[in-house]
Amino acid sequence: MSEKPAITITHVNKVYPNGTVALQDMSMETKDSQFVSLLGPSGCGKSTVLRLITGLEKPSYGKIEWGDRAWNQKLAFVFQEAALMPWGTVMENVSLPLKLAGKSQKESSRAVREALDLVGLKGWERSYPRQLSGGMKMRVSIARALITEPRVLLMDEPFGALDEITRSKLNDDLLSLWSQKQWTIVFVTHNIYEAVYLSNRVIVMAARPGRVVADIPIEAPYPRTEEFRTSSLYNKYCREVARWLAEAIK
After folding, report:
1. Which of 14, 99, 149, 205 is the most buried (most CB within 10 A)?
2. DSSP letter at 235?
3. Domain limits at 227?
4. 79 in any annotated domain
């Protein structure tokens, strides 16, 4: 992990036209190649932070700066729902960003197969979403993000709808991919245990208006395994994050 800032959010407010104050004096900095989780109660503005980073929405006040101006052009978003085209095969769904960029099927084919291999879906290229489990659909969604060769990966509760066994496996797979690709990841979750397991840092946000109430470094080495999940250090961090989250919802 570099000490170079990737994304810096400084004193950002977001007020919607109906008067709802989603964020108030929101500040955070994410280092290059860091894995940061945003944790907080529903409606605290976690997803709003991601949309502001992408540029889909603009802050009402404050600023968002990139450590490298090119990085905001190398950004991928993985949503809570896989959002696959039901009429398209796995290969067609994954290749969509390249198709939209004007790449030919021949140019895209190898990249798609490599991405599917990375997420453990080799051999499923001709399958349709209806033939896939929830976890497999999310792997397709991650492969679709991979194919754009992102520098920054934003993930909005991508595993929230999955069972615990599938979620745990995808957590491990995501960390493996992150260690290979060295993305900067901003990951939104409601799950304390997931946030602590995955992250370099857990940022706890207060209930609306959203703002940072705690920025907790998770000083545990990678790779993280089941041994870490059952360790006293892991439990210590989970208790600390839970304490701050309880404060955030008061």
Report:
1. 205
2. H
3. 5-74+151-248
4. no
